[in-house]
Amino acid sequence: MATTTKRSIPLLKHLLRQTQTQTRPVTYMPRPGDGSPRTVTLIPGDGIGPLVTGAVEQVLDALHAPIIFEKFDVHGDMKTIPSEVLDSIKRNKVCLKGGLNTPMGGGVSSLNVQLRKELDLYASLVNCFNLPGLPTRHENVDIVVIRENTEGEYAGLEHEVVPGVVESLKVITKFCSERIAKYAFEYAYLNNRKTVTAVHKANIMKLADGLFLESCREIASKYPSIKYNEIIVDNCCMQLVSKPEQFDVMVTPNLYGNLVANTAAGIAGGTGVMPGGNVGADHAVFEQGASAGNVGKQKIVDRKTANPVALLLSSAMMLRHLQFPSFADRLENSVKRVILEGKYRTKDLGGTSTTQEVVDAVISNLD
Fold this sequence. Notes:
By secondary structure, the protein is an alpha/beta fold. The chain has helices spanning 2-22, 49-63, 83-92, 111-118, 174-190, 208-220, 233-242, 254-268, 298-303, 309-321, 325-341, 355-364, and strands at 38-43, 67-71, 94-97, 123-129, 142-148, 158-162, 165-168, 195-200, 227-232, 249-252, 275-279, 284-288. It folds into two domains: 36-128 and 271-366, 3-Layer(aba) Sandwich (Isopropylmalate Dehydrogenase), CATH 3.40.718.10; 137-268, Isopropylmalate Dehydrogenase. Helix content is 42%, strand content 17%. The chain has a ten-stranded mixed sheet with strand order 2-1-3-12-11-4-5-10-8-9, sandwiched between helices. Helix 6 links the parallel strand 8 and strand 9 (227-232).
């Protein structure tokens, strides 16, 4: 019986490879010239940023991906994004970035927020899903959090009325609420998603979140094939940690989206493996999906043990955005193989590997 089983394994592997070859889909018909290399702005950033962006550079080089990076040294303690960096992103249309440190308090503006405002990157997308081989408390998690990125509490409209009293304004507009709702439903439609859930606190902020809900309902009526529902943000957090598999696509105002995305990421395997990006009508910036502004502890930087998986998966999203789907598939499949095998994992995933060891494993698993 054991001999028969041993003989069956190579046959099964052969049949599996044959099946995969026979069912390979036609991804898209490129236009002449679509294979030309594309220049992408690269911002390594602070902390673990240079480690994980360096990992992406190595893997894309091993893939022979048609990407040329235009690299800029930007740090979170700068007062503004340098004009040459903005010009580069506007010219290239696409940027890959590591985390930029955001100073706490002191009235210093976040460069991450500046970048989103300057380029009108109004939609933040974080995909939180279970990776085969990575044990988590919940299974069948595949949540996409789409967050309005330009207004709400993150607009930074604050002032001190009198000493000891600070007024912080939350601004919600119909224009921004409608366009983020439209993006969420369009995303669901194009990606064969079934449900969009609007997250709100309209029971308390009746005008601001009420306007957001009203906008979502109007857009939902134009997509009858997609189920639409609503949930109050505090109940949403409770439902996320108890039954996350019920959620599909979630659309949120700015602050709630940050909280929900990080919660969903923690449930699905941790912020170190969740891809994401920010997109507007003309530009896109890809970065680690959850806690994108978190630059990691100095100990991780010193020991070079940062997890590159999230940014590698974000790079796969970037490759699809640039219409290089086969490169994206190869990169994504290789990362998933490494996670499934479980031999090379950084500390946050229960392993002892360095960033470079994970990168070498991903490169060796490329098709």
